């Protein structure tokens, strides 16, 4: 297959985590997991690592040769840096990676759309990292493939499955309506694209249009949709097991940046968790602002770590604390899989309702609670931790 020839399988990713999960999907596909083999659930507290194919010592399968990964990078430097590192890992696995700028310039979206149109129309299977992405939804208007695969974009996958089950418009859980008349006009103009995307994500009654979700999240298939478990077999096969430190690591969140959690309340919560658990390091989310991280470091004494790869890979490579504490986020679902058999405890601290900003929607409140309530193989921190932080 020459670089210019259309690929049978085309994947679109916009974040490092999405690219990681495309690699996990390709690995699972090569291992036969998509033929109905059910991966073993991780044992609570650290059972035996089952390895890449369910048994320790089994060699990793060869990568599928019909996959082309198209990276549609965001503009922020942290995300771009992590994406470049992940693209390098994907190439090491034998996958073709195409870096396509679709943002950052007035005509960049139009140029990217024109450059990708032929490949999108020719693809037999399309793998999508972010079904909420407006740019990806626009590309879906060109899709003729009879098979769509959605890989995790974190906890947003839970909302995607729920919204498609209810036949609702695809809207991110933390999004708050606004923008006045211009915003409403943009929504109206975009409505046909959004409606087309919803139809693409609905399996056909005759079985000709197939939709699969490849996920670590607690989601249930509906209306002909297939859900396959992502148990991070590729990550476990390639990295670790990690060396464990005696301390506790905290995992940062972008809930402040998305306008859901009040900055002062978040600082108080991190300070309380640091004191109670003896935390020494804070793994920053790639979207956390430098100013916020500076304040956190000065107030708590925590070492701020800006990972150059998704946290699942960082933790698996190590060194990592024996306890990892997180607020409700993707990692409370993914790290228990990535760290099977290592002895690491993953703990989750609820977001107290008093921490939320006035603009946080009721939907955001319920969604955050659901992320925590459905987390498997994690330790729920005592309620007084949350109240002390508030």
Description:
- With about 400 residues, the chain is α/β, with parallel strands linked by helices.
- The chain folds into 2 domains: about 10-235, no CATH class; about 240-390, Rossmann fold, CATH 3.40.50.
- Helix content is about 40%, strand content about 15%.
- It is built from 13 helices and 13 strands.
- The protein has helices at about 15-30, 75-90, 110-120, 135-140, 155-165, 180-200, 235-240, 265-275, 290-300, 310-315, 330-340, 360-375, 385-390, and strands at about 10-15, 65-70, 95-100, 125-130, 145-150, 210-215, 225-230, 245-250, 280-285, 305, 320-325, 345-350, 380.
- The strands form 2 sheets. The protein has a 7-stranded parallel β-sheet with strand order 3-2-1-4-5-6-7. Strands 10-9-8-11-12-13 form a 6-stranded parallel β-sheet, with helices on both faces.
- The protein starts with 8 loop residues before the first strand and ends with a helix.
- The model is unreliable at about 30-65 and about 385-390 (pLDDT under 50).
């Amino acid at each position: 297959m020459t670089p210019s020839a259309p690929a049978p399988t085309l994947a679109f990713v916009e974040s490092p985590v999405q690219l990681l999960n495309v690699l996990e999907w390709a690995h699972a596909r090569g291992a036969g997991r998509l033929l109905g083999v059910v991966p073993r659930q991780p044992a609570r507290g650290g059972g035996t690592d089952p390895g890449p194919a369910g048994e320790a010592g089994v060699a990793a399968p060869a990568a599928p040769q019909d996959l082309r990964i198209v990276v549609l990078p965001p503009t922020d430097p942290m995300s771009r840096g992590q994406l470049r590192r992940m693209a390098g890992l994907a190439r090491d696995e034998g996958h073709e990676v195409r870096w396509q700028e679709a943002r950052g310039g007035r005509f960049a979206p139009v140029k990217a759309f024109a450059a990708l149109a032929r490949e999108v129309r020719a693809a037999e299977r399309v793998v999508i990292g972010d079904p909420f992405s407006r740019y990806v939804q626009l590309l879906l208007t060109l899709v003729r493939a009879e098979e769509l695969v959605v890989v995790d974009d974190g906890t947003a996958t839970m909302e995607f499955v729920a919204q498609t089950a209810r036949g609702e418009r695809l809207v991110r859980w933390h999004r708050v309506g606004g923008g006045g008349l211009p915003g409403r006009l943009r929504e109206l103009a975009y409505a046909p694209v959004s409606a087309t995307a919803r139809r693409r994500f609905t399996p056909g009654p005759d079985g000709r249009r197939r939709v699969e979700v490849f996920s670590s999240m607690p989601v249930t298939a509906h209306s002909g949709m297939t859900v396959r478990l992502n148990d991070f077999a590729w990550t476990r096969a390639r990295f670790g097991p990690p060396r464990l430190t005696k301390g506790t690591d905290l995992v940062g969140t972008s809930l402040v940046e998305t306008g859901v959690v009040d900055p002062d309340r978040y600082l108080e919560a991190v300070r309380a968790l640091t004191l109670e658990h003896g935390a020494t390091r804070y793994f920053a989310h790639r979207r956390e602002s430098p100013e916020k991280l500076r304040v956190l470091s000065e107030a708590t004494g925590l070492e701020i770590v800006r990972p150059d790869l998704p946290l699942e890979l960082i933790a698996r490579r190590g060194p990592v604390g024996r306890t990892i504490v997180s607020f409700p986020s993707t990692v409370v679902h993914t790290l228990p899989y990535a760290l099977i058999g290592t002895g690491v405890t993953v703990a989750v601290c609820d977001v107290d309702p008093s921490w939320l900003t006035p603009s946080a929607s009721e939907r955001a409140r319920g969604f955050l609670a659901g992320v925590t309530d459905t987390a498997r193989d994690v330790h729920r921190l005592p309620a007084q931790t949350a109240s002390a932080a508030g």
